[in-house]
Specification:
- Helices cover 41% and strands 16% of the residues.
- It is α/β, with parallel strands linked by helices.
- It folds into two domains: 68 residues, no CATH class; 108 residues, no CATH class.
- Strands 1-2 form a two-stranded parallel sheet. It has a two-stranded parallel ribbon with strand order 3-6.
- Strand 4 and strand 5 form a beta hairpin.
- Helix 2 packs across helix 4.
- The longest helix is centred in the middle third of the chain and has 22 residues.
- The radius of gyration is 20 Å and the shape is elongated.
Length: 180
């Protein structure tokens, strides 16, 4: 195992990438190795959330834990809303540049696995296009509702969003479907 190279990754299993300065990322290599040995020995592996650190999910570090998905009631997360809003701004800018007008309607695909990985970035993008934003409960981070922003704050027309929902998304995220 010590020489097993992860072909798509940035490191060799059990060793942090050269020059890595983030202490949580540095801990990940050793934690992954220890967890593998524990699993092979039939011992307990501590649980930890799944997600992408590159998408603002610092809570998933260090890796090497028994993954669980996030509480779906927290989606979209505040970080994913910021990223989704930025993506919607880029879609609007690009459309305006190409067509000389605002889009009237768009379709957004919602996939269960992508939503887990991004914390609901696609949902956030659609909400931003519609001129809405989530309201979060401060204690739990759960989404409790949607705020419809006044037209004056948008500076553009609202976009009608049609949500195309995968079967996995339907089964995993009924709360988000009711929300949107």
């Amino acid at each position: 195992l010590k020489d097993f190279a992860i072909k798509d990754g940035l490191h060799i299993y059990g060793r942090s990438p050269e020059g890595e300065t983030d202490p949580l990322r540095r801990q990940s290599a050793e934690a992954e190795k220890a967890a593998l040995i524990a699993a092979l020995d039939g011992r307990h592996i501590a649980a930890g959330p799944a997600g992408a650190p590159a998408r603002g999910r610092r809570d998933v570090l260090p890796t090497g834990r028994n993954l669980f998905t996030s509480d779906p009631r927290t989606m979209p997360t505040p970080t994913s809303f910021d990223l989704g809003r930025a993506a919607s701004d880029e879609v609007l800018r690009s459309y305006m540049q190409s067509h000389g007008d605002w889009p009237r309607s768009l379709v957004i695909d919602l996939w269960g696995s992508a939503s887990l990985r991004t914390g609901g970035e696609e949902i956030a993008q659609g909400l931003a296009l519609m001129g809405c934003r989530p309201q979060w409960e401060s204690a739990t981070g759960r989404v409790t509702g949607i705020e419809v922003l006044p037209p004056a704050t948008l500076g553009r027309p609202r976009v009608d969003v049609t949500w195309r929902i995968s079967g996995l998304f339907r089964d995993m995220f009924p709360t988000q479907i009711a929300l949107i």
